[in-house]
Amino acid sequence: MLDKSNNKLKKLIGEVEKELLKKIEVKSINPFDSVKVQFVPKGWMLLGTGNYAAVLCHKDFQDFAVKIYAEGRPGIEDEIEVYEKLGSHPAYSECYHYGKSYLILKRLKGINLYECLRKGIRIDEQVIIDIDNALNYAQKQGLYPHDVHAKNVMMLDGRGVVADVSDFNKREYCSMWKHLKKAYYKMYYKSVYKVTMPIPTIFLELVRKFYRLYTTLCKFKSSKISTPGGF
């Protein structure tokens, strides 16, 4: 864990609170879609967006990532608790500091598996093994790995890392990683891995939307079965 008296961290906290939070606009239009960032101040770079928050980096603080939650989106308290339980682990980021609506994290400079597929970058089996081990570790810490999909896990120097743990406090079963791992071994490893060809974005998005529809239908059927008199 980085010492919070670290000069670089102290300077970054100042940049966040005196400049970034006053100028940036992070809005959640639809809870099922990524947040929208209306304006990014000079010197800052948008690294990515999720359903709850946006992640940015400052050009002078390249080893840190700043995650800002959209107004009205819950979860920051849960995410702080998750990082406290995870502690220091090579497959996860770390939380160095947090404020009312933001976290300062160790930046993971890898590439997510979705982008690997899109760009035709080979995903070695070791990446899958590492992520699997990391999720097992999280469970042993009393967490519940959730929402582990191709955009939330990364390849970093040939090893697997988990980039988003914001939903690891949700006490419900999530089959995303199980299905992703199955697809890797049943389809990717037997064909795409050998030729490492780029997969068109339109195809990946169709698969993603079909999977979302499939999981929604499964939850609906499950709720009907578990409800007395349901049909």
Structure, explained:
The chain is built from six helices and ten strands; from the N terminus they run H-E-E-E-E-E-H-E-E-E-H-H-E-E-H-H. With 231 residues, the protein is α+β, with helices and mostly antiparallel strands. The N and C termini lie far apart (52 Å). The C terminus is likely disordered.
* CATH-defined fold name of the largest domain: Phosphorylase Kinase, domain 1
Query: What is the H-and-E element order?
Result: HEEEEEHEEEHHEEHH
* Coarse morphology: globular
Give the fraction of residues assigned to helices. Answer: 40-55%
- Hey, roughly how much beta strand do the residues contain? 15-25%
* Total discrete domains: 2
The spatial strand order of the largest sheet comes to 3-4-5-7-6
User: Which regions are unreliable across 5 or more consecutive residues at pLDDT < 50?
Assistant: 225-231
Structural class: alpha+beta
Number of helices: 6
Radius of gyration: 19 Å
InterPro entries: Kinase-like_dom_sf (IPR011009), Meiotic_Drive_Suppr_Kinase (IPR052396)
Keywords: Kinase, Serine/threonine-protein kinase, Transferase
Protein name: Serine/threonine protein kinase
GO molecular function: protein serine/threonine kinase activity
